Amino acid sequence: MAYNWTADLETGNITIDEQHKQLIGALNNLLNSCSQGKGRDALKETTTFLYNYTSKHFADEEKLQLASKYPDYVNHKRYHEEFKKVVHDLMSQLEKDGPTVVLVGKVNSSIAGWLLNHIKKEDVKVAAHIRSK
Questions:
Q1: What is the CB neighbour count within 10 angstroms for residue 29?
Q2: What sign does the dihedral 45-36-28-90 (CA atoms) show?
C-alpha cells in the first residue's frame, strides 16, 4: 500500500511540503521494492536517505520555527531528535543483523507512521503559526 499525498498533509509552506513529498516518496520506493521482492536490497539505501534527508529537513523546519518565534519550538525539536534516534537505531540494527523482512516492516511502521502523524499533528501547527506572522 503506497502512501498518497493528501490535503491533510499540506502545511501550506511550499518548501516544507516539497520536502515531505520527498520523504513519502522514499517510503513508497521501499514499499515498491518490497512488492518486487527487493525490499531487503533497498533497505540500507532507504534508511540512509531518510536519516540524511530528515536531518536536513528538520534543520530547515527548525530555522523557520526560530525565525517566526514558534512557541512550541523546544518540544518540536525534541520530537525531531527522538525520530532521528529511531532511524539511527534502525540503521544500527541493519548493520548488526543485515536486511531482514522484520526490519523492513519496522521501517515501514516506525518511520512512516511517525512521519505521517507528525506532519498531520505538529507540522500543520507550525505552518499555521508561520502564516499568522
A1: 15
A2: negative
**pLDDT tens-digit series, residues 92-131:** 998 898 888 888 888 878 888 899 999 999 999 999 998 8
Q: Residues 78, 86: contact at Cβ < 8 Å?
A: no
The pTM of the full predicted model, rounded to 2 decimals, is 0.85
Rounded-to-integer distance, Cα 51 and Cα 61, Å = 15
Give all domains of the chain, ordered by start, each with its CATH number: 13-132 (1.20.120.50)
Residues with Cβ within 8 Å of 112's Cβ and at least 6 positions away in sequence, in order, are 3, 27
Cell of 60: 530547515
| Structural contact between residues 31 and 1, judged by C-beta atoms closer than 8 angstroms | yes
Query: What CA–CA distance (Å, rounded) separates 122 from 96?
Result: 33
Q: Find, among 119, 92, 105, 87, the residue nearest to 127 by Cα.
A: 119
